[in-house]
Amino acid sequence: MMLKPLKSMGKAEEAVIIGGGLLGLNMAEVFSEKGLKAHILQRGSRLSPQMFDFEVSNFIKSKLEEKNVEVNFNEELIEIKGKNGAVSEVETSKGRRISCQLLIVAIGVTPAIKFLKETEVKTDKGVLTNEYMETSVQSVYAAGDVAQVYNSIKNQYLTYTSWASALEQGEIAGFNIVNQNKKSYLGVPLNTEFIFGIPVTSIGSPNPPDESKYKFLIKNELDKGLYLKLVLDNKKIIGGLLVGKTEKADLIKELIKQQVNITGYEEDLLEEKFEEILKEKEGRN
Ligand SMILES: Cc1cc2nc3c(=O)[nH]c(=O)nc-3n(C[C@H](O)[C@H](O)[C@H](O)COP(=O)(O)OP(=O)(O)OC[C@H]3O[C@@H](n4cnc5c(N)ncnc54)[C@H](O)[C@@H]3O)c2cc1C
């Protein structure tokens, strides 16, 4: 399967990538390094919207453009045209034609759950589970990309699509299958992506849908390649977004997981004294 694109990559000069999520950005980086002109078509006006906010998206866009990658927002694929059995150009929703010898579709993953439709296992986008990873049918568990897990902080069923989450959920499901005292999964996704060597890490919910309900602590030094954003829901952190310096992401994840009351610590948070806050809170308990 991989041979064909690799073979045609040698001759290709232009590539179109549908989807500006993490995989699309990874492909753009590879093409740029191989000297191809890459065009990303992204639905909406933000790259990797589950991770990036507009500030970070614009920063990454400018880095991509420096490397011969064109980012086109609010533009989608309408038609693929071919010549001699190979792709030759695409037509976009803005009526543009872009010539290309390679086309990559990176628009996300959909769980293969059709076979469950006629069963009593409840599904939505994925297989619905409680916080113990158990489905609506007793003794039937789900974990990983296919699972849509109840999150008690958000009061919602959420999917977590990363290796780390799949491993953690698998361990919890396995534990609960063989133990009476069940462990619950409080999913705090943590994803790190490197784009042209720049690390970007998102933790928890960095971009909650209704911004007016939350407070944001932001240290924007993107002119130096650095960004720190924390999302506060009342007295607790629910999300974070880091660019450039991401080593302390695990500590932010811990603050979220432990639902630490951060009242009075806003300055310390902006100074990245996460470890000190955790230690002080642990000392008090
Ligand atoms: C291209 C790509 C790159 C990625 N890169 C990263 C990364 O850098 N970091 C990261 O954290 N995550 C990454 N991910 C996400 C990560 O791979 C997944 O979150 C993780 O693999 C989920 O594990 P899983 O066991 O739930 O599913 P999978 O790893 O997808 O395994 C599911 C398995 O079940 C099989 N299967 C499906 N349906 C059935 C059925 N009905 N009966 C039997 N078997 C079935 C499938 O064939 C597959 O082998 C990436 C994903 C993709 C697609």
Question: Could you describe the 3D structure shown?
Answer:
It is a single chain. This protein is 26% helix and 29% strand. By secondary structure, it is an alpha/beta fold. The protein contains 7 helices and 15 strands. The protein folds into 3 domains: 11-105, FAD/NAD(P)-binding domain; 114-178, FAD/NAD(P)-binding domain, CATH 3.50.50; 190-284, Enolase-like, domain 1 (2-Layer Sandwich). The strands form 4 sheets. Strands 11-12-15-14-13 form a 5-stranded antiparallel beta sheet, with helices on both faces. It has a 4-stranded parallel beta sheet with strand order 3-2-1-7. The mean pLDDT is 93.
Which helices and strands appear, and what pairs or packs with what?
Elements: H1 3-9, E1 14-18, H2 22-33, E2 37-42, H3 54-66, E3 69-73, E4 77-83, E5 86-92, E6 97-99, E7 102-105, E8 127-129, E9 147-151, E10 156-158, H4 163-178, E11 190-195, E12 198-204, E13 215-221, E14 226-233, E15 236-243, H5 249-257, H6 266-270, H7 274-284
Bound molecules: flavin-adenine dinucleotide (FAD).
List keywords for this structure.
3 domains; binds flavin-adenine dinucleotide; 4-stranded parallel sheet; FAD/NAD(P)-binding domain; alpha/beta; 285 residues; 5-stranded antiparallel sheet; Enolase-like, domain 1
- Enumerate how many helices there are, as a single number: 7
Report the sheet with the most strands, covering strand number, pairing sense and barrel closure. Answer: 5 strands, antiparallel
Bound molecules: flavin-adenine dinucleotide
For the record, the CATH class of the largest domain is Alpha Beta
Structural class by secondary-structure content: alpha/beta
Distance between the termini: 55 Å
CATH architecture of the largest domain: 3-Layer(bba) Sandwich
Strand arrangement in the largest pleated sheet: 11-12-15-14-13
Spans of at least 5 consecutive residues whose pLDDT stays below 50 are none
Number of strands: 15
Number of domains: 3
Helix content: 25-40%
Query: Would you tell me which CATH topology of the largest domain applies?
Result: FAD/NAD(P)-binding domain
